[in-house]
Queue: 2 jobs
Job 1
Amino acid sequence: GEDPLLWAVGRLLQHADGRRRLGVHANADTGDDADRARRLGATGVGLCRTEHMFLGERRPLVERLILATTDEERQSALDALLLLQRADFIEILTAMDGLPVTIRLLDPPLHEFLPPLTDLAVRVARAEERGEDPGADAAMLAAVQRMHEANPMLGLRGVRLGLVVAGLFAMQVRAIAEAAAQVRADGGDPHPEIMVPLIGSVQELEVVRAEIEQVLSTVDGGSEARIGTMIEVPRAALTAGEIAPIADFFSFGTNDLTQMGWGFSRDDVESAFFSRYLELGIFGVSPFESIDATGIGRLIRIAVDEGRAANPQLTIGVCGEHGGDPDSVHFFHAVGLDYVSCSPYRVPVARLEAGRAAVGGGGSDSR
Ligand code: PEP
Ligand code: MG
């Protein structure tokens, strides 16, 4: 028969599911991740990051798109990427049949897609030493130097990249709509949602939303996607009342909200000074792990309250790492979110804690 321990855990989670008000979604980028998340009880994908889909063997295509000097070059890169993206989205929408899948438009900093400056510089220097023409390498070196940023995480990423690289977001939106149409034609029930990263002002979302709607309207049978935004730049939280009327949903990106709110680099703090801060008791646990009602949590409360006041239909979730942290789940319940989204293996814990929060048990005092 069944393992008694697993049986008991299953009963416990069922009990929590019966009580909790928070939905529990998962962050998943592939069909396999989504399958795993579903088996662990996730009732949606709260964040599908599309960036890994542009790395590896597809990287040359992305380079070609970003560094294109002619419309033909740009268009041929976009056409190739469209086919690949459509297949990616069919996979994840099929795995989550009947459940929402929030697909985030491309986010990472530009430099991740560009060939490394030093490699190019070395190639050009070698060619010149040998008295050869560095040709395309020299042109690429100049282009990459032009785009070089001192602080890429505060630079050309997220919505900014989408507004600068013509056709990029439109290609992704078309891929989502065509994938949904295909899944539906095959008898499935896809629920894609389109999420814009790194919004800091309502004007950015206005421009991108208009572009998204325009593309959706041109795809037969694929035009029902809800459109929403990450709230991860502090200014977005502080202007949530302006943004909410043109968003179907908000999803808090607590990783970036913490980075920008505290002014701590996500990529550097752990080794640089966190252990000293923990030792001194400046905080008891890394702010990148856990969130409460103070500080960054206040930004969240402001955005929830002002967002809901401006748009009562707004769905609000969180998809940063904190979405699967037990204490933070209690805070997200208290502040009135609709769902948390976390990595698949943390889904059971999030379900349990959401249930405990609803019956008033456990967690740090979060309100
Ligand atoms: C976030 O910033 O919290 C987030 C979910 O996005 P990413 O981690 O991909 O920046
Ligand atoms: Mg982010």
Job 2
Amino acid sequence: MKTHKIALIPGDGIGRDVTDAAWAVLQTVATNSGFALESTQFPWSCAFYKQTGRMMPEDGIETLRSFDAILLGAVGWPAEVPDSVSLHGLLLPIRKAFVQYANIRPHRLLPGVQGPLKAEGFDILCIRENTEGEYSGAGGRVHQGMDNEVAVETSIFTRKGVERIIRFGFEQARARRGKLASVTKSNAQKYSMVFWDEITKQLATEYPDVEVTSYHVDALAARMVMAPESLDVIVASNLFGDILTDLGAAIQGGLGFAASANINPDRSAPSMFEPVHGSAPDIAGKGIANPMATIWSGAMMLDHLGERDAAARIMEALPAVTAKGIGTTPGKDSTDTITAAVIAALTAE
Ligand code: NAD
Ligand code: IPM
Ligand code: MN
């Protein structure tokens, strides 16, 4: 029997609840589909940091390298560990080290879910650059605490990095409805974003079948709310993609629905699957986190691992559950209730 080796990193807050839920669903579908999923759990988190002084061991990246994929819950417990320490100690280094440059974030309104726009048929795919740009980590502070203090945070855009993500966006658009929105702020940012616009134009000649439009990110944000049906695939830089995907999550009914795949398209290292949301300290420990985003991310993981039928079965179960009104209202149904309903839908097929 085919066995996929998965590294499980529940992380902080609701991260454990949602990864437990997704794992139960994944195990069910694996058993029913005739393949095996073998997990190794890593306790890397803010609690781990408090015990060891590190978010993951020094050889953490090398340890993860031998897995077929990584499933992650959420990282961050800002009351005890600054986000700048926790995220730069665990999540962001994994994305970079494993060249997971394509962050795929689908936004669809599932049946029965009341999004704030009541945008029926809302279906956008956001492709976010995931390894450079505004998240380069380059910069510094001088004269800390003084009146003349200066903080510099340098965005780094490389031709290789920009080309590969825009090309990825074109490919995704070609496989969907043939429309690509390339997002910049080239009216204000005259180097990196003009560079991005130029590369979009250059690549467009290779994809005559894709209708590409360049938008400024502010206008695109408004368009996502006012005319979401005019959009298909969006390709954006790291920070713009981050912001637009929380907006996409809101339109699809909340952060509990938004899935995310950090893909290494060359398959030279494992890809990582996680919800768009964070550790949600405000609801942690209450048992009411919506696990659908992580279950959906788990389906994206199966798809990436070549288990297309199993992934499709999960993606049929989720709307079957929401259509019954289960999991559609934040806080109404427990994590366990929603998980059990997804498993029941899978086994009822
Ligand atoms: P958040 O996504 O954790 O929470 C924002 C809001 O959405 C909260 O009201 C929360 O209750 C709600 N929410 C999130 N997930 C939900 C779910 N599954 N079901 C129901 N409601 C849900 O964002 P935040 O509060 O800005 O961040 C909290 C911590 O998580 C911070 O440390 C932040 O840096 C970190 N974070 C981590 C990741 C990640 O690991 N990928 C992503 C985002 C934020
Ligand atoms: C996300 C998160 C992360 C990001 C944070 C926690 C660093 O918001 O995955 O969307 O900005 O990439
Ligand atoms: Mn985010």
